[in-house]
Design brief:
The complex is a heterodimer of chains A (about 475) and B (about 150).
Chain A: H1 19-29, H2 40-47, H3 54-58, E1 66-68, H4 76-89, E2 94-97, H5 100-103, H6 107-120, H7 130-141, E3 149-152, H8 159-167, E4 172-174, H9 190-207, E5 215-217, H10 229-245, E6 250-256, H11 261-281, E7 288-294, H12 304-320, E8 325-327, H13 340-356, H14 366-388, H15 394-403, E9 422-425, E10 431-435, H16 443-455, H17 463-471
Parallel strand pairs in A: 1-8, 2-3, 3-4, 4-5, 5-6, 6-7, 7-8
Antiparallel strand pairs in A: 9-10
Chain B: E1 18-23, H1 31-42, E2 46-49, H2 56-66, E3 70-75, H3 80-83, H4 87-93, E4 100-105, H5 114-123, E5 128-131, H6 137-152
Parallel strand pairs in B: 1-2, 1-3, 3-4, 4-5
Classes of the chains: A alpha/beta (about 475), B alpha/beta (about 150).
Amino acid sequence: MADPQLAAGAGHVDDRWDLAAERSRLLYEARDVVAVELAESAAFLAGLAPDRFASVAYRARPGRPFVQPRGGVPDLAQQRLLTQALDAAGADFLPLTVDSVTRHNDYAEAARLLEVGRREGRDLLNGYPLVCHGVEATRGLYEGIARPVSLRHGTPDARLLVEVALASGIAEIEGGGLSYTLPYSKNFPLDRALSHWQYVDRLCAQVGPTDRPVHRESFGPLTATLVPPVITIAVQVCELVLAAEQGVRSFAVSFGQSGNLEQDLATADVLRDQSHRWLAHLGLGPVELRLVYHQWMGAFPVEPELAWQLIAVASTISALVAADKVVIKTPSEALGIPSPESNARSVRAVQYVLDMLAAPSVLRSDAVSAEADLIGQEVDSVLGRVFDHPSASLVAAVHRAVLDGTLDVPFAPHEANAGRLVCGRSADRRIRIVTPGAVPIGAAQLRRERELFEGTAPDDRPLWERLLHDVRMLA
Amino acid sequence: MPDCLPGFEPLAGPVRPGVVLGVIGHDIHVVANRILEIGLSETGMRPYNLGTSNTIDDFVDAAAETGARAVLVSSLNGEGEVACAGAGDRFDAAGLGHVLRYAGGNLVVGSRPTAEVERVFLGYGFHRVFHQSVSFAPVFAALRADLLQAADG
């Protein structure tokens, strides 16, 4: 059973800290950077049309996944053009991708690069510097637009960024203390990141209207490099329950295309099942739970004809797992940041594929069930270790689980990440655990993983060569 | 971690040779760095991995602290050209001139002839340069040959 300190019954919300006090301090300290009034977000969101809320859109899924491209450019007018192009192309959700200088909270440097870029007529930032542009300008981006906007970033301390986003009418916030720290930062202290994301979660929970809550989404692909399903699912469930504990009532778990259809089908099954199970087990919720699928996040082929095939297969899988939303790629992925035209073409192409696959029932087979059983047992073991530990709080339990290597993200650059879990790819392209490090995988499951890794077609290349080959598997 | 591959049995002596590796500059490209660490273990070395975001002095310090016999400096985003300048002198100044120094990755910004890039980095005091090498195999082979030669000499 869960520690009674961790969960005090259904509908329980963490009452050990005070958001209002922290908000006042944060916004006061940031007063020279950006102006956000304390009561402004709630008032603006209350007056915002329902079709701008992801949580509302998700309640009426149209028999296929919603389609969301990626996109963010530094210049305000260019971002408006991109937004209009994606809206005209029929993107169901619109992206606002934030630049990496803002992600590291260096707003002065972002402002400087924005200004120099403007003077020299070129982009020196790789996304939209939301904090520099501020609330009024960003609201203007979405005038006349009747679609939800999704904030995409990669920020360990996203408090100010999310304050500005919510006040600007962006009602879907991606990220989490694990998924936006371990893959994105070398040394931002993990305990601080987790506590800053509690702020974000609580803020999202409190500023939205009750019938149109601000939607939160986690980032399952992590490093997108040989991350086994058990780690993706464990991280997703951790961020789900941490958000639910702060009062979030609309949340999407997500994962990325693994390279094997059956493993993706199994991952989707287990991810949904474990999410519901742990919310109930910890006495949290109710949460409107959604599933998001990311098209291939690894290295893309340069040839457009191959890239289109990859996008089509990824779109198909998103339909077969009955994802609520698919985050898409463009054929220029291998070449750099896509043009608005390339992005718009991709939106139409993905919808073209999805319309061929209208409302399929989730595909299952013996092979998928066997894979799902194995992954499910592994997740039971890992999350059992995380949450059965007698920690003072859920967030402390999650923090400890990273430090002791229970949660270990392959290829994550963060210094707190153990980096001892090693995975490989079997001949049928499933991701398999080779060396578990400190991740508590049971002996039977580990034996099975290794059989499946070596069993199909013995490969006597050294591990380093197989890993290097894998990184460019579909490129 | 698997044991050594055939042909890469530990070199003479009670311990495997230590090798410091890491990525230089504000560069978060960590995937190849991790694979290189695994490959060093598999080829009979004892890797000390500094991970990302290092300066040349971090490599000097690590070589001093671990008694490593070689350092592998990677740059994937091209910051290496600036960050690696004077590397040989820093090792000499620390009394570590004998430590083997390799540089590899995408060592400069933009596309420049490999021969030119090699000249620049040899001038910085590196013993071998692997600019845009498609495999680690030549690195492992060279490292073994150089360490054997150093042991003979």
